Amino acid sequence: MNPETIATQTETSLQSILHVEGLCKTFKLSRKQQKIEQTQQSHKKAVDNLSFDAFRGEIFGLLGPNGAGKTTTLRMLATLIKPDQGDAIVDGASIVSQPDQVRGKIGFLTSELKLEDFFTPNYLYDFFSQLHGVNPVEAATRKQVLFDRFGISQFAEVKVSNLSTGMKQKASLVISLVHNPEIIIFDEPTNGLDVITARTVTDFLQELRDQGKTIILSTHIFSLVERLCDRVGIIIDGRLTHCDTLQNICQGLSLEDRFFNIYKEIKENENEILQKGGQQ
Fold first, then answer.
1. pLDDT tens string 172-184
2. For 58-80, how does the pLDDT look when each residue is reduced to its tens digit (9 = 90+)?
3. Are residues 83 and 76 in contact, defined by beta-carbon separation less than 8 angstroms?
4. Element at 231 (helix H, strand E)
5. CA 115, 119, 124 angle in degrees (round to 5)?
């Protein structure tokens, strides 16, 4: 049985909780950005007609180099920015026409979102629990479990400004889950973390997956994808080039070797097209 048949049978046996269809996002480049990227183009297409599905109870990874469009994609899925074209249906809600409903269904964590330094983890957890309308008894129970799980309890009344980087990341993770969302979106979940904290976070992501949650994460770390992800989408220059299980994508190679083969092939094709265009 060929890989495409296996992939089709697998997809039909699973329930899609996130359907992404034709997402596009273009940004205007300043003159400084044009100089940095060595281009005369005034606009950059960060995400180019991106489509994929994520299934209930899986960890889906977006793998690509810096600047590939991973963060922009996740920010659109989290309704922080609007797509220029396309849509995504998150557990039945559209990111374009029903963003408020989407926000109630997801947890979103990125290093770009900072906790307010003046407040404590305890205050912030309670604040966001109330914001999401979580039952006070349920919120208190979940807070105790999560604070103990991540070692936050002894720092619960310490201002965020006085927490270590790892503790800030763990507090951010816990606060993003106050409403017990079915879909959790993480942008580079282990960036800047020490090895102990990174392991704590990745172990927890696997626990969430085992509980039936859907995890969407972006990363450029091959070992993280190999350890965590059930399926992976490779994104290069804003385009999704491959989307499948690791086994089907790797074709007997390591993920790193397979990725660079794909990257090299894409760049060679681009150069060939440019050369042909210059000869016309």
1. 989 999 999 999 9
2. 999 999 998 899 999 999 999 99
3. yes
4. strand 231-236
5. 70
